[in-house]
C-alpha cells in the first residue's frame, strides 16, 4: 500500500496543494491503491510535499513520484501519444509548474487579504507568542521566491497578464477536446487540473481567478476532471462564486 503525504482538504479544494493533487490524480489514473496522510513539508526528504512511502521507499517531488510509478508498476501515463505529443505534453507541464503555478502562489500568498484568509491559518496551532512571527516569516519567504520566479518582479496587473497568456495557451491546446492531448486523460492533465482548480476555487477572490473564468473550456475541463477523480467532493465553483 502506497502512503501519500499531503496537506489535505482546504480552500474549497479536495487538496490544498496543486502538486499533491497532481500526484493523487496520477495514483488514481494508474489504479494504484493508496492511503493519504497529512504532513508538513519538513517531514519530506526534500522538504516539500508531496512525497510517498511505497513499501518503505520514500520518494519526494511529484515528477519523481510519477517516474517511480512508471518504473515500478509499468504504467505509462502518456500511452497512445506520439513522440511529438509526449514532448508537447512535457512542455505544457513545465509551463504550468514554472509559470502558472507561481501566479497562483502570488494570488494566495502575496495578496494580503487572501493570505489572511488562507495560508496564514497554517500557523494557527503554533504557540501564541510565536505565531505571528512564523506567519510573517513564511509570507516573506514565499514572496521572495515569487520574486525570484520572475512574475513577482512585475506590477500586479502585469503579472496577471503574463499568467493569462499561459492560460490562453492551455485553452487553445484544449480546444474542444475532453483533455489536453485528446479524448483520454494523460499525465499532464493531472498537472493542469491541480493548478487550474487552485486558481478557480471560489474560496479566494483574485484578478487571476476572474480572468481564468473567461476561458469556458478551462472551467468545464476542471469540472470534468473533478467529477472523474473526486466525485465525492462538492465542487460547483460558478454557483458558489455567484
Describe this structure in words.
Keywords: Transferase. It comes from Bradyrhizobium cajani. By secondary structure, the chain is α+β, with helices and mostly antiparallel strands. It has 2 domains: 75 residues, Glutaredoxin (3-Layer(aba) Sandwich), CATH 3.40.30; 157 residues, Glutathione S-transferase Yfyf (Class Pi), Chain A, domain 2. It has 10 helices and 4 strands.
Task: Give the secondary structure arrangement, pairings included.
Layout lengths: L1 E5 L11 H12 L4 E5 L12 E4 L2 E4 L1 H12 L9 H28 L1 H6 L10 H22 L6 H19 L12 H14 L6 H6 L3 H14 L7 H5 L1
Helix pairs in contact: 1-2, 1-7, 3-5, 3-6, 3-7, 7-9
Rg result: 18 Å
Which CATH class of the largest domain? Mainly Alpha
The computed structural class is alpha+beta
Poorly predicted residue ranges: 238-242
- Extended strand count: 4
* H-E order: EHEEEHHHHHHHHH
Beta-strand content estimate = 5-15%
Rounded to the nearest angstrom, the distance between the terminal CA atoms is: 41 Å
Strand order of the largest sheet: 2-1-3-4
Distinct helical segment count: 10
Number of domains: 2
Organism: Bradyrhizobium cajani
Pfam families: GST_C_6, GST_N_4
Domain Thioredoxin-like fold: 18-114
GO molecular function, one term: transferase activity
Question: Descriptors for this entry?
Answer:
Glutaredoxin; 4 strands; 242 residues; globular; disordered C terminus; alpha+beta; 57% helix; 4-stranded mixed β-sheet; Glutathione S-transferase Yfyf (Class Pi), Chain A, domain 2
Amino acid at each position: 500500500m502506497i502512503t501519500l503525504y499531503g496537506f489535505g482538504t482546504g480552500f474549497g479544494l479536495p487538496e490544498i496543494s496543486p502538486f499533491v493533487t497532481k500526484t493523487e490524480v496520477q495514483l488514481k489514473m494508474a489504479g494504484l491503491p493508496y492511503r493519504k496522510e497529512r504532513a508538513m513539508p519538513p517531514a519530506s526528504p526534500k522538504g516539500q510535499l508531496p512525497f510517498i512511502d511505497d513499501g518503505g521507499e520514500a520518494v519526494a517531488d511529484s515528477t519523481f513520484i510519477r517516474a517511480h510509478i512508471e518504473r515500478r508498476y509499468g504504467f505509462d501515463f502518456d500511452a497512445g501519444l506520439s513522440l511529438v505529443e509526449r514532448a508537447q505534453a512535457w512542455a505544457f507541464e513545465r509551463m504550468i509548474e514554472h509559470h502558472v503555478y507561481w501566479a497562483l502562489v502570488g494570488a494566495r500568498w502575496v495578496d494580503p487579504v487572501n493570505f489572511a484568509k488562507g495560508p496564514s491559518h497554517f500557523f494557527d496551532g503554533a504557540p501564541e507568542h510565536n505565531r505571528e512571527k512564523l506567519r510573517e516569516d513564511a509570507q516573506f519567504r514565499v514572496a521572495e521566491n515569487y520574486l525570484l520566479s520572475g512574475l513577482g518582479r512585475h506590477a500586479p496587473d502585469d503579472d496577471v497578464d503574463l499568467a493569462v497568456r499561459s492560460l490562453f495557451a492551455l485553452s487553445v491546446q484544449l480546444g474542444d477536446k475532453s483533455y489536453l492531448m485528446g479524448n483520454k486523460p494523460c499525465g499532464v492533465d493531472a498537472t493542469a487540473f491541480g493548478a487550474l482548480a487552485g486558481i478557480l476555487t471560489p474560496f479566494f477572490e483574485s484578478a487571476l481567478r476572474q480572468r481564468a473564468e473567461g476561458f469556458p473550456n478551462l472551467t468545464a475541463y476542471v469540472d470534468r476532471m473533478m467529477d472523474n477523480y473526486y466525485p465525492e467532493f462538492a465542487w460547483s465553483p460558478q454557483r458558489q462564486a455567484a
